[in-house]
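DM from R.C. (forwarded with permission)

"hey, sorry to bug you on a friday — could you get me a structure for this? deadline for the figure draft is monday and I only need the backbone to look sensible"
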Amino acid sequence: MANNELHETAQALVAEGKGILAADESTGTIKKRFDSIGLESTESTRQAYRDLLFTTPGVEEYISGVILYDETIRQSALDGTPFPQLLESKGVIPGIKVDEGAKPLAHAEGETVTEGLDGLRERLAEYRKLGARFAKWRGVYSISDTHPSEYCIWTNAHALARYAALCQEAGIVPIVEPEVLQDGTHTIERSEFVTSRVLAALFTELFDQKVDMAGTLLKPNMVLSGYEASKRAGVDEVAEQSLHAYYKHVPAAVPGIVFLSGGQTDEDATAHLNAMNARGPHPWQLSFSYGRALQAPALHAWGGKPENVEAGQHAYYHRAKMNSAARSGVYAPQMEREAAAVA
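My reply, with the result:
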């Protein structure tokens, strides 16, 4: 029965036309976001911002789930409804970020391993009581001519699989997030090679640790040229190289791949997702689990001012709608301009 529930939740998170909002920024990250609009980060400003996102009218047409941070899953909306309850009332599944961040990896200069396994079983039991039905853990790998090392790749794969097994034991769907950072001057071919190595190790560990693939979602990077590369690959090449890596390594039993945006512009993240879906159908649903690429326009339209809540919600709704179109491969850049004209 537990497995059926995991499978149903995983399928619901990648339901047709829908994706996931990543609203799990740590206190440090949300402070940087608020600094960009000149707003002090306090518990009440963070609550007001999350309330703006979660109460956006009609956005549940395009958003299946929301990843929360520890503070947020314990907070309530401005009307007093606990956030997980508010989301559930709109048919949106609450989730939770459970890793404790990337820390320096011993004997591997410039590389990291994600921590947070100690006490995770107990934390998952508590999050489940608070309403979480899925979770997220991020491993991070940087690209250079020599990085990531096999040591870094396998250490993070092992931790991701341990996390995933504990989630499933607790009745929570794990999103495994191996993020190959796209900062640097690397070619798209180097990105594809590294992404493939990371995925090969990850799925080896997931199988070895008896993780149920049908109750798991993958949240990988797209395969891109380095952001500082002299020549950047276009949308079609990104789609081809990305799909090449996933087809080699992601089992068809995985219900969905929910991409991170990873520093892309809002419109690039949408266009790349669209190009991959236009080449479908694929063995898995190709969806989105964006943070900044869904939120940035909303944050700037709001600016921390109560009178701008509606403008912020309109901006968030628009990005969710554009990414929903990309889920079916029917997104076109002129849709951005048409929507702006209506607004």
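R.C.: lifesaver. The first helix runs from residue 2 to 13.
me: no worries. Residues 188 and 225 are 4 Å apart (CA to CA).
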